[in-house]
Amino acid sequence: MMTYTAAIENAIRALSTSNENDETIERLQALSAALVKRNAHKSSDATKAKQAAKRAEARTEVVNVVAPIVRKAMTSEPSTVKEIFDRCVGLPEDFTAPKVQYLLLHEMAEEVVKAEAKGKPNTYRLAE
């Protein structure tokens, strides 16, 4: 597959046989340089992997702080996310009820039982 940069270079070579195309060649060279510059900042796979690992590590740190608080707020009786959130004491300021729900459904999924009722909010309880 031919890249845009390669196509532009081919066009420059084809046009360079005539002196009448100097302005067109200059514009194509500028376009080629702009494409190279734009593509130069794209992250490599290694950089993307490092960034993903960093995000996962930060997420683990948050879960290690928040999960015990949420566990403590849960009872053996099914509760809605709002009820669980309201009982949580000591959550980080930016932690909201939707974040608690995400935590329950993803990070704590193996230890939480979710009950769905049509037309009503889902309830959650710790698995026994």
Global Rg: 28 Å
Global geometry: rod-shaped
User: DSSP helix count?
Assistant: 5
Reported for the largest beta sheet, the result is: 2 strands, antiparallel
Structural class, judged by helices and strands?
Answer: mainly alpha
Structure commentary:
The protein has two domains: 37 residues; 81 residues, Arc Repressor Mutant, subunit A (Orthogonal Bundle). The protein contains five helices and two strands; from the N terminus they run αααααββ. With 128 residues, it is mainly alpha-helical. α4 crosses α5. A hairpin with a 7-residue loop joins β1 and β2. A two-stranded antiparallel ribbon has the order 1-2.
Task: Itemize the secondary structure elements and their pairings.
Layout (H helix, E strand, L loop, with lengths): L3 H12 L6 H19 L4 H29 L7 H7 L9 H11 L4 E4 L7 E4 L2
Antiparallel strand pairs: 1-2
For the structure shown, list the relevant keywords.
single chain, 128 residues, mainly alpha, Arc Repressor Mutant, subunit A, 2 domains, two-stranded antiparallel sheet, 6% strand
Summarize the structure.
By secondary structure, the chain is mainly alpha-helical. It folds into 2 domains: 4-40; 46-126, Arc Repressor Mutant, subunit A. Helix content is 61%, strand content 6%.
